[in-house]
Amino acid sequence: MALLLYLGLTAALARGCLHCHRNFSDKFSFYRHHVNLKSWWVGDIPVSGSLLTDWSEDTMKELHLAIPAEITREKLDQVANAVYEKMDQLYQGKMYFPGYFPNELRAIFREQVHLIQNAIIESRIDCQRHCGIFQYQTISCSNCTDSHVICFGYNCESSVQWETAVQGLLHYINNWHKQDNGMSLVSPSFTCLEPPHLANLTLENASECLMQH
């Protein structure tokens, strides 16, 4: 398990992760403008159009993440290409029987949500492969701005590396508090992680100490 330390983020209107991809506007503009050619039943057209129009907003509603929706550009490309491939295949067909087209759109939407969830969580889990403070660049799904995640990884191979990692964590926290004295998420005093206690410090003890603050 990795401890994640996040910088303060400003909330913005939900836009959806896929909306941040460079080809999203062109792709979904095409999908919306050609939706009336995909079903024999006129009732499918407004339903499908609504699904496409609300795609981004509905994505943010369905993510249900306990962590900020921030995705790396590489993983965003992977998700976007997978979605576009599915959508392009769907649009290559001729007119579908009533109900088929909107149901397929819903299936692609649900798969997209799962792909985004997995991509975001996998990046956090990758933090475990590092020792100490680690940072990686991301895109904020809420407003499509560049952002980054700072995390603390426990994958240290020696007591020396572990002590260095903890010292780096304390240094980061102290700098964080100097930059924002109003920040109350983390206590400036970590006596349980100070040098006298580092010699016998275990992962469990460190986790308990951090959770208490």
TrEMBL record:
UniProt entry tagged with the keyword Signal: yes
Source species: Rousettus aegyptiacus
GO annotations of cellular component type: nucleus
Keywords: Signal
Signal peptide segment: 1-16
Family, as annotated: Belongs to the Izumo family.
Pfam families: IZUMO
Protein name: IZUMO family member 4
